[in-house]
Amino acid sequence: FRRRPFRLVHRRPLLHCVLTSFSPYDVTIRPSDPAIADFRSRILFSVGLVFEIPLAMYLLARYRVLHARTFRRLRRYAIVIIAAVITPTPDPFTQLTFAIPMYLLYELGILLARQVAPEIDDIVPPNPTPTP
Question: Cα(71)–Cα(65) distance, rounded to whole angstroms?
């Protein structure tokens, strides 16, 4: 009897069914435990990075490195490049599943950057009081 404390066979039936449904019927897929652990750790790391985007944008705006206007201007490039780099697999489905939440979090980061460091155009001047 060999005991495997980190055995993923019992914890992966749904993941295994979904991932093997994309393969042809004549191909048998038998992933090993280290391969699945590596895949899961890459997914977890990537999702963690995606959720740090608003914090990074907030800090960059807070210390006046970049402004909300810059984030708005670079929006399309940032989403595509970050989604392509962070996703663990090159297929479009996975990139799309990362890009949608990333877009929402990027917009949240723009709102946070705008709140912490309002631009000159966003600041409303106070009503001047007439001098007697």
Answer: 11
Residue 107, token pair as written in the block: 């917009």
3-state secondary structure 69-114: HHHHHCHHHHHHHHHHHHCCCCCHHHHHHHHHHHHHHHHHHHHHHH
Q: Locate tokens 């890459």: which residue?
A: 42
pTM for the model: 0.65
Specify burial of residue 5 (Cβ count, 10 A radius: 0-12, 13-18, 19+). Answer: exposed
Question: What are the b/e assignments for 50-70, b being 16+ CB within 10 Å?
Answer: beebbeebbebbeeeebbbee
DSSP assignment string, 21-41: TTS-TT------HHHHHHHHH
* Structure token pair of residue 98: 């990362």
Residue 100 φ/ψ, nearest 5 degrees: -65, -55
* Structure confidence by residue, pLDDT tens digits, 28-74: 767 677 877 787 788 788 788 888 999 999 999 999 899 899 999 99
Q: Locate tokens 């800090």: which residue?
A: 59
